[in-house]
Each structure stands twice: as structure tokens, then as C-alpha cells.
Amino acid sequence: MHPLWIWMLMAALQFIQSEEAEHSLSSKQGALPCMRGFAQDEYIIDTDQELAKGQAVFNVSFMDCGGGKVWFNVGESSDFRVSEDGVVLTLRRLSLAAQKKAMVVVYAQDLQSKQVWKTRVHLQVHPDGNSTGPEQVKLDDATLTQRVPVILFPWRSVVVRGDGTLRRVKRDWVIPPINVPENSRGQFPEDLVRIRSDRDKNRMLRYSVTGPGADQPPTGIFIINPISGQLSVTKPLDREHISNFHLRAHAVDLNGNQVENPIDIVINVIDQNDNRPEFTHTTFNGSVPEGSKPGSFVMTVTAVDKDDPKTANGMLRYKILSQNPQSPSSNMFTINNKTGDIITVAAGLDREKVTQYTLIIQATDMEGNPTYGLSNTATTVIRITDVNDNPPEFTTDTFFGEVHENRVNVIVANLTVTDKDQPHTPAWSTVYRIIAGDPTGRFSIPTDPTTNEGLLTVVKPVDFELTRSFMLTVEAENEVPLARGIHLLRQSTATVSVRILDINESPEFSPNPKSIKLEEGLPAGSLLTTFTAQDPDRFMRQTVRYSKMYDPANWLEIDPVNGRISTIAILDRESPYVKNNLYNVTFMASDNGIPPASGTGTLQMYLLDINDNAPHVFPPEVEMCERPDPNAINITASDPDLNPNAGPFAFELANRPSDIRRNWTLSRINGEYAQLRLRISSLASGIYEVPVMITDSGNLPMSNTSYLRVKVCQCDHHGDCVDMERIIAAGLGTGAIIAILICIIILLVLVLLFVMWMKRRDKERQAKQLLIDPEDDVRDNILKYDEEGGGEEDQDYDLSQLQQPDALEPECVKVGIRRLDERPLHYDHQYPLRSAAPHPGDIGDFIHEGLKAADNDPTAPPYDSLLVFDYEGSGSTAGSLSSLHSSSSCGDQDYDYLGDWGPRFRKLADLYGGGDD
Fold first, then answer.
1. Which residues contact 687 (CB under 8 A, 6 or more apart)?
2. Nearest 5°: phi and psi at 811?
3. Do 356 and 283 lie in a common domain?
4. Inside any domain, residue 360
5. Residue 353 sits in the same domain as residue 324
6. Mean pLDDT for each consecutive 10-residue tract of the chain (917 residues)?
7. Model confidence, pTM
8. Same-domain status, 490 and 525
9. Less CB within 10 Å around the terminal CB: N or C of the chain?
10. Is-contact 599 549, C-beta < 8 A?
11. Is there a single domain that holds both residue 402 and residue 488?
């Protein structure tokens, strides 16, 4: 029987009860008190012969009046179970073909008051073999038969009007939801429920539904017959896509007027177990330390199911299907079937034996029911992590090595260990320590990070003559301590035997360096000292020979056999090779071993000073004015010797030449300084050599006459030399001064030549500007004069200005039209006369004459201005060109000479010289 029908029967029962209650209401009470419990004590439901596992068979309705939460149970039945919302489902596949009926007792218990209610449901196979026929429900020994559940627009209770009459008022009770299983395979459209109004008895009504799934996306899933109110579903539903639909039913008359308030219809899609569990990962990776105790957490695996998690369809259970390897037992791990937590259940995890385990995990829905639940699997890899549970152990008890004496940073022996822990981890890395046999710390054992070997190394030189072998005791342990609970029976130790090899060592001078004191001036062949070396090789009979390596002044020699050192030159403390009275010589001692060895030693000679150097005047050169004020110069002495073989000094002027004492005087200031003065008032400029005799204070005093170079010069008021000699004294020679003067003179000459060239170039440029362009030369071009021009306005020019001034009459002189830069023509000015051209036809000579006149004219414009040459002057044999002005009242002009200028001017002669015609 369809669960929706059960719900509709419940609604009908409530409706009948409400109708009965309306007749028993008084004017003061609107409804009967609520009776908590099942709607019916017994049900009879038609069902199919074959029921699938997990199929929803029917719903039970419990009347709740606001009490505590109710828990449903089906008693001892192993075929059915009931969900929290009263849906009864099968636990396995059932067949009712043989027995044709079955009974299910459903209990409801209040969790607070512990009150229990029950109802019996009789399942019987429909005669047609399916549950699509009529549904029978026994109500108080009465049977109600109907094919499709009916939803009536609800009514409220009866109320009393003011006039004492009764009136029915609409109810507001909530319609229970309609449950539709997903993935239905029935014929579509499939009827769900019928919507009707009790007002359809008097008039024709039309029904409709609105909401998502009807007239809103996704549209067309639910349809309703507008006449009968039959609500149907058009295709299978998918709860994982949409779990419920909220529709509104409407009833209107043929005019579209609403006759009933809309009622809300909730359609729940009942879940079916149509989705397998899915693990979140195909392979899960975890780890656990080796030696972990049972109950240690390892990891969590997770699977999800798209089915309803509130039903058995989505309730998952986990279990371990297999473990590989099965060592040391086949059940090293267990899993919490609800949470997926994996924990250890057995001891004996040892990384050195098993590095990782692979588990196959299964997740099953239907609360893990192996018969009806859907399953899926995933792989879990559990890596066993390392802890320091294995100490390092030496591969042998004794190691051997050898090393030559005097060697350092040399590997003597490689110490090897074994460690079962994971390589290149702190639990595997080994630290070596010498615990005996090396009191002076001559050996060290660093660890090779790649091989974990101990490298026994010499860090301090060892001497074969002192110790020929070492016996070392070495201990090995890890960088980190052993794990808890691991106890060592003994510490891992080993013995290292090191043999020292003898080598030929170099002879050693003692002491080195060797210092001696002696006076300078020792003659060649003097014996100074004996400098010998000892051979450390006491067990070898070897001969030592000596030689000189470094003697910068070449003063000494050494006997190759006995090491005696003697001089071969005079020792001089004032030599540049002597620094701070010390002179160093290096010698070498070599043995005759195989191979030979040699060593060096240094002899430091501290030379004592003797008075072997005479003093000299200092400074050797001085300056003095011709008339010095004060008339004195201070001088001192320079002596390479040391005190007391140097100062104080005695100064004295030499007796010769005779003018020295006549011109100069020398007075002692103290033991270091003397003062030189002029005896005369002035001395001519020049350079004077003044001999000064100086005597030191040595035990055997030494005297010396040195010359003081005195430069006498003219001085300014500050006392500074100003003559050429001072420049020379400053380091600038006469040749350099002459060269500088010659360069200055050459530079001035070049500047003068450049200025003259610029003036000449400017004159040539001005002359070129006055020349007629070759293209416009009237002698080389034929000009066309048969055009009259633009009109009478061309006659406004005064051509009389082209006439010669001396040929014009006074009344013919007038200003006319001129340029602004043109010289005004006033007869009272005196212009320079310009010579006449040698020939009237030579225009070039004429222009050159005009250029010369302009250059000599003080009133001409500047040389870079445009010059005017329209003034011909009085020297022209051609006369004035003013006669070209035909309107002039002046006398006739003679133009015959134009014929002499060539064929180009012959036309002008014909025009102006041809008389009246």
C-alpha cells in the first residue's frame, strides 16, 4: 500500500473527527481536547507480493499534543524497522506470495514519561498482486474504501453569531506532507492525491497548483486535473537532487474568483538506497612510530554517501577487509566502524622488520548490513616511522692505522659501525668519542655524514722519537638517546692501534733567531760566533752542512762544517741595509738523509755605533737679502753617527779665502746651532760659497769643512726674493723661461694675423655683393623690352636721379623716390670724387671705383650694411641717366655713345637718340 494513502486516510480521519466535534461544541467551547496517541489502533494495508530491501512500506501517524519527544520501535521484528518520523521500512527482501499477509506492531514511547502506545498494522497481498488497488483501513470496526486519498479544503469549528445563529469558519491546521519514494518505476503520470472543495456540490470549480515543480523551475514535474483536482507526478524523482517540494493548491470558480483559501502541500521525496558510499581519497596515507603500544591512534579514513544520512541508506559502517603483510600477526590494527579511526590492537610494530602495512578498508551503508547495504573500498598505507631502538655497533673490536710523524689533518683509520635504524636520521647518525689513550688530545674522530664512518684524524703533530705508537679506546653512540624502554647490555666500544712512522726531519737551529752585539767597523776576517743546528732524527746517523741563504750587504760567511761565522767586509751601522741598528742574515742547515731535509736559522746582529762619520753643514743652501733685517741665518750640522759621537758641535769659518771672514761672521747659539751674519751692510746679488768647519763630540772627534751655498737676492718689503734668481731657485730654469716667452710672442702674432685675415675676408665679401649676378649680366643676356608694364603708375619714378650731378641744372634736382638707407642728395655736401671709368663700356671698373669710394667715405654705412651705388659722381663720361625721364623739362641728351657699348645697348641708342620719331 502506498504511504501517501496512509497519510490521506489519516487526514480523512481527522476531518471526520472534526466534523463530529462540530456538533458537540457549545457556545463557550470551540473544539474537543487533544487525545495523544496513534490515530488508529489497527490498520489493514494492501501491499505487493515482493518487497525490496530498504523499501518504505507505510507511515504511522501519532497524534502529538505538544508532549515530549516520542521514540518509535517495531518490537522484535527482524524484517522491519521504523524511522524517527514513523516511516516503516524493510530490513531485507520479503516475499508474501506464500503467506499472503503479515502483521507489524509499532510502538511509541515518550522518552520523558516512559508512556507507551502501540498500533497493529496488517499487511495483505492485494488480489491483483500489487498495491495500486483500494486501501482498507479499519476504523472502529468500520471499513472505509477509497482508491485515491482526498484532501479537502479544511474548515474550522462552528461559532455563534451575535444573533444566536451558527457560522462555520475555516480551519488553519497544517496538512501533513505527502511522501513520494524516489526512483519510482510505475507508469507516469502517477496519481498522488486529489484536491477538492466541498463547495463543488453547488457549482463548477477549477483546481490548480503553483510553486517549484509545478509552474516554476523545474516545471512540469507535478500536474493537476483542473476539473477533478487529481494531483499527479510525471516522472521519477531524485531525492539527492531535490529532497522536497512546496506547492500551493488553489480552487476558483469558472469566472476565476477564489472560492477557497490556498492550502500548502509539502511533497517529501522518500530516500531509496541508490548511492554507494564514496571514500574521500582512493588511497589514505598514515604513519605510526614503531614500538607503539596497543590502542595508539594511527589515522582516520572517511567516506560519504549521497543518500539520506538520517536513514539507514546513508548510515555507514567501516571495517578492515585485509592487512598486508600479516606480520607479526594478521590483526595489527582495528577500525572504529562508525568514525573510521584506525588504531593499533597488537604490540610488535618493528620498522626494521616491516616498514609499512597496507589495509583494505570497506565502507557499507544500511548501517553495515552485509546483505542489503551497498559497499565500497579504499586502500590505506600505514608507514612505520623509526625511533632510536637500535644502538650503533662496531663492525670489529680492533681497528689499525698508521701515520707519519709531524703530519696533521691526516686520516689515520676509518671506523665502521652498523645501525639498523633508518639511515640519515638522528637515530642512525653516530657520534664517536675517544675515552682513553690520548691524554694530550692529538686525535679527533669526526663523522662522515654519508657513510656514518668515524674518521680518526691527527690534529696535533706526533713525534716518532717520543712515541712510536698509540692505543686508543673509542666509544660510539647516536645523536639522540635511545627510545624509552630500550636498555643496553653494554656500551659499544672498540680499540684503535695507531703506529707512528719515522721520517727524515729537518735540522733545527737553536736558538732561532740568534742575537749578538758587536761594534761596527770590524775588519774582514773577524770571527763573530758559531751558529749550529741539531738533527731531530736521533736514530739516524746523518751529517749536517751549513750555507748562507740571505745576506743583503754580503758581509758574512759561514763554515759549512762547524757553522762558524766570520766577516768578509767591514760592518757599517750607517748602511741602508741596517734597520734600527739591526742586521739580519739567514743561514740554512741540510742533512744527507733520503730525501735530504733542511732547516733555516736567522742571525740578528745589533751593531754598536763608533765615530766614523764627520759632520756636515745643514741646510746646504740658504737665501739672504742684499740688505737683510735681521742680518742672520741659523745653521746646524748633520752627522750619521749617534750620540755621543754626534753633537754638540763646534762651528768655525774657514780662514781662506780671505774675503770670507771679511764679509761673514759665525757665532755659536748652542751645541746644535750657529748663526751666520754679514759683516758689511749689503752684498751684491749672487751665489756665494761659505766654507764652514764643523767638529763633533766623539771620543776621537772628527772635523769636516763643508760649504754653505748662500743665495743673495733683492727682497720686497716682506723680505722675500723678487728677482729672477728666486724663480730659478724655485726650480724653473732659464731655458724654460725663454721657451715660455717665445710661446707668448708666437701666440700674439697668430692672433694679429687672424684679425688681419678676417678684415680682408670681410672686404672681399662686400665686394662680391656689389658684382652683378652672371645670370643678370646685361652684356651676356638678351632682355625683352616690348612690354609696356602695368600702366601709367610706372611713370611716377624720378629717373632724373640717374643723371650726373654736374650736368644737371639746379631746377632739375629734386628728391624723387628713394630708399631709407640711401645717402640724401644735397648739393651742399662734399662727397669724395670718384674717378671716371677708363672706358664707358667697362661696368666692372665702374663698380670697383664705387667700392673704393665707399670704403674711403667716413659717412658710409657700416661695412656689414647694404651699400648704395646709385650715385654716379661727377667723373662719369657717360653723364647722367636722368635723361631717361621723358617728362623732364631739361635739355635733350646725347645717347649716341650707347651704340659703342655693344649690340645690346644699340637698341637703347635707337630709342632715345633717334630724334623726334
1. 709, 710, 711, 712, 725
2. -75, -10
3. yes
4. yes
5. yes
6. 48 46 35 59 76 79 71 81 82 75 83 80 66 35 43 55 50 70 88 87 89 93 93 93 94 90 92 94 95 94 94 94 94 95 94 94 94 94 92 93 90 94 92 93 94 94 87 93 78 92 82 85 86 78 86 89 88 85 90 82 84 79 71 78 76 77 78 78 78 78 80 76 54 69 92 90 72 49 50 48 44 41 45 48 72 70 54 53 46 65 72 58
7. 0.46
8. no
9. C
10. no
11. yes
